[in-house]
Amino acid sequence: MTESRDAARALIDRLVEAYNAKDRDTIAGLYREDARYWSALGDWQDGLPAILSHIEELHRRLPDEQMAVKALVTDGDTVVAEFVSTGTSPSGQLYELEFTEVIDLIGAKIASVKVYLDPEEIDQIMG
Predict the structure, then answer these.
(1) Per-residue three-class SS string for the chain
(2) For residue 90, what are the β-bridge partners?
(3) How far apart are alpha carbons 103 and 36 in whole angstroms?
(4) 15-70, pLDDT tens digit by residue?
(5) Residue 91 class from Cβ within 10 Å (0-12 exposed, 13-18 middle, 19+ buried)?
(6) β partners of residue 86
(7) First to last CA, the chain
(8) For strand 94-106 and strand 66-74, is the pairing parallel, antiparallel, or unpaired?
(9) How far, in whole angstroms, is CA 11 from its chain's centroid?
(10) How far apart are CA 102 and CA 8, in angstroms?
(11) CB 125 within 8 A of CB 95
(12) Residue 104 neighbours by CB under 8 Å, 6+ apart
């Protein structure tokens, strides 16, 4: 169990590092082809191409965004992580956004992500 917990934590560390570097190939390698992604802002993104498109849109709109893990718990198959993202909004204002993700893993890859955040905060950031 400890090994699977350590592997899950390492996967999230790689995900954050790749996200911050805008490294599409590494991000893609961390997800299953049939992965699903949901946030409080919209519908499910089904499949790796849709997820990558969503992430690329975030990178386009928030090019200097940097994400960091504040807290993380895992049983090895499910990860609950608190994150903070900082950067500059499209209107030029600095922002800090806290959110939580529930990430399910299958075979050492991300199978699903559910992002819990305040839509009003996102509206303020995105303008």
Answers:
(1) CHHHHHHHHHHHHHHHHHHHHCCHHHHHHHEEEEEEEEECCCCCEECHHHHHHHHHHHHHHCCCCEEEEEEEEECCCEEEEEEEEEEECCCCCEEEEEEEEEEEEECCEEEEEEEECCHHHHHHHHC
(2) none
(3) 10
(4) 999 999 999 999 999 999 999 999 988 889 999 999 999 999 999 999 999 999 99
(5) exposed
(6) 66, 96
(7) 44
(8) unpaired
(9) 12
(10) 12
(11) yes
(12) 77, 78, 79, 110, 111, 112, 113
Locate 68 and state its tokens.
């960091």
Q: What CA–CA distances, in Å, run from 48 to 23, 26, 64?
A: 15, 12, 23
Q: What is the distance between the alpha carbons of residues 32 and 116, in angstroms, rounded to a whole number?
A: 21
Taken in order of first residue, the domains within the chain and their CATH numbers are 2-126 (3.10.450.50)
In degrees and rounded to multiples of 5, residue 68 shows phi and psi of -140, 150
pLDDT digit string, tens, across residues 63-91: 999 999 999 999 999 999 999 999 999 99
